[in-house]
């Protein structure tokens, strides 16, 4: 007596399994689109975390160091214009958004924006920013160029501090000499200008402020579900 077990459709099943393995390894239009969607969603999530940290929050357990008075003074947005001195500058620095001056870096985390990176491959997605200074801000380290490049730049930055205080006119210079101009000179202006001139050509250290962080487990699980759904849909075809 012979005993046979006939399995119908084995070749078809194996073909589908091979197709599933191929979709997982090399990708199909559905899986590539799934990864592209994942990248776009994660860019938006990373951007939201950036905004939170720039305001002093600790999204993802990461908290950035605040803006320094020197950075506040040198910002191109001109937030420090016409302050009376260093103490006012320090107070202002505490209110400024961290890593946001021109807004270029933050904007680059928007899918499709200038500087944004979003590349979906067969079984992966690469996302982030290619703004030239992003990596240095993310990892920290020595600056590529000095914060104050010339004496003229130092004086221009110092000009954001009031040289002459409003109100009554004084008759003495900050050095104690009699002033023919009889202006109410602001000693803080001269102190800060002198300090900035000493910084000309000096390379400084940038403190690390991680910009991109790993997604939390719940988001990774959601993303895995999207890829799985794409593979399953391919197997049904």
Describe the protein's architecture and organization.
The chain is mainly α and 237 residues long. It has 2 domains: 11-64 and 100-137 and 214-237, no CATH class; 65-98 and 146-202, no CATH class. The protein contains 9 helices and 4 strands. It has helices spanning 10-25, 29-54, 69-74, 86-95, 104-107, 134-139, 151-158, 187-198, 217-236; strands spanning 116-120, 125-129, 141-142, 205-206. The strands form 2 sheets. A two-stranded antiparallel ribbon has the order 1-2. Strands 3-4 form a two-stranded antiparallel sheet. The radius of gyration is 29 Å and the shape is rod-shaped.
What's the short version?
The protein has 237 residues and is mainly α. It has two domains: 11-64 and 100-137 and 214-237, no CATH class; 65-98 and 146-202, no CATH class. It has helices at residues 10-25, 29-54, 69-74, 86-95, 104-107, 134-139, 151-158, 187-198, 217-236, and strands at residues 116-120, 125-129, 141-142, 205-206.
């Amino acid at each position: 007596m012979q005993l046979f077990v006939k399995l119908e459709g084995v070749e078809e099943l194996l073909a589908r399994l091979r197709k599933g393995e191929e979709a997982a390894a090399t990708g199909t239009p559905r899986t590539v689109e799934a990864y592209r969607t994942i990248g776009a969603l994660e860019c938006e999530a990373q951007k939201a975390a950036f905004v939170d940290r720039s305001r002093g929050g600790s999204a993802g357990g990461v908290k950035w160091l605040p803006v320094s008075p020197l950075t506040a003074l040198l910002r191109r947005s001109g937030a420090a214009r016409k302050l009376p001195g260093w103490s006012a500058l320090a107070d202002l620095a505490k209110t400024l958004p961290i890593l946001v001056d021109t807004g270029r870096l933050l904007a680059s985390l928007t899918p499709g924006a200038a500087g944004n990176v979003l590349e979906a491959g067969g079984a992966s997605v690469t996302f982030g920013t290619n703004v030239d200074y992003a990596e240095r801000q993310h990892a920290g380290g020595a600056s590529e160029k000095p914060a104050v490049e010339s004496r003229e730049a130092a004086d221009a930055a110092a000009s954001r501090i009031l040289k002459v205080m409003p109100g009554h006119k004084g008759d003495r210079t900050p050095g104690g000499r009699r002033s023919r101009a009889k202006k109410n000179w602001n000693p803080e202006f001269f102190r800060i200008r002198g300090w900035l001139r000493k910084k000309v050509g000096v390379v400084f250290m940038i403190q690390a402020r991680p910009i991109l962080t790993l997604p939390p487990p719940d988001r990774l699980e959601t993303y895995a579900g999207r890829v799985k759904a794409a593979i399953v849909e391919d197997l049904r075809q």
